[in-house]
Amino acid sequence: EKIRRERSIGARNATKHKPLDNRSKHSLSQLRIEMKKRIKFRKLGRTSSHKWAMLRNMVTSLIKHERIVTTTAKAKELKYLADHVITLAKSDNQLSGIRHADKIIREKPVLTKLFQVLGPRYEKREGGYTRILKLSKNRRGDGAEMAVMEYVDRPGELRAARPPTSVQQEIMAQYLKEKIGLEPLAVNDVESLEEDINKLSVDEETDESDEPQSDSREDDSKN
Predict the structure, then answer these.
(1) 81 Cβ partners below 8 Å, 6+ apart?
(2) Are 23 and 31 in contact (CB under 8 A)?
(3) d(C-alpha 56, C-alpha 76), whole Å
(4) In the predicted model, is pLDDT for residue 179 greater than 70?
(5) How far is CA 50 from CA 21, 47, 53, 54, 56, in A?
(6) Do residues 88 and 100 make contact, with C-beta atoms less than 8 angstroms apart?
(7) pLDDT 10s digits, 10-57
(8) What is the pLDDT of residue 219?
(9) Residue 134: what are its φ and ψ, rounded to 5°?
């Protein structure tokens, strides 16, 4: 009887500490996947080699036509590569940039267009070379979200992009010079103005520090 009781107690303890079933394990794995943070790149349901080959084809088509239609997820992944090749085209060391871009772009005429057309076009723009416009209708069949990926400042675009900061400053300086007659200050003039302002602030502080001392002396003489 003692052996039977020990066996029953052991069975009860085993049921209390029973391992998780398949459903609970599956739910925990889903929670772990959903809790991942700061995921920068998407796999897009492909291996790394397949994804890289697809992005190379897409960036070649984008440079060739300057506007393509694809899914929103692919467009967001393509944006990194499309901006990177423009940075290579704007680099000071053209030979190194051509070698790096040649490993990405598949067609030689497209590579020539990148360095002779797109590079000079974005010389004054510091970033934001591409634009993603989402389409209202999803893809027929799987219902994937579709978008238009394009380079800004291209000829024939429907909506003009905001001009670069340097161009905005030039336009503002020209407007002030024509309307008001105000010319932009040089770097030396700005530095001299800052020195004058600092001197004025120091003089004001010394005047404020001298005023209460004179008042105290007058009060002592009266007493």
Answers:
(1) 55, 59, 104
(2) no
(3) 14
(4) yes
(5) 36, 5, 5, 6, 10
(6) yes
(7) 555 555 444 545 445 455 455 455 556 666 677 888 898 999 999 999
(8) 54
(9) -75, 140
Amino acid at 120: P
Tens digits of per-residue pLDDT, 79-132? 999 999 999 999 988 899 999 999 999 999 999 999 999 999 999 888 889 999
DSSP collapsed to 3 states, 147-201: EEEEECCCCCCCCCCCCCHHHHHHHHHHHHHHHCCCCCCCHHHHHHHHHHHHHHH
Mean model confidence pLDDT for the chain: 78
User: Tokens for 38?
Assistant: 């700061």
Residue whose tokens read 């530095």: 191
Q: Report whether 69 contacts 138 (CB < 8 A).
A: no
Q: Which two tokens stand for residue 196?
A: 């004058």
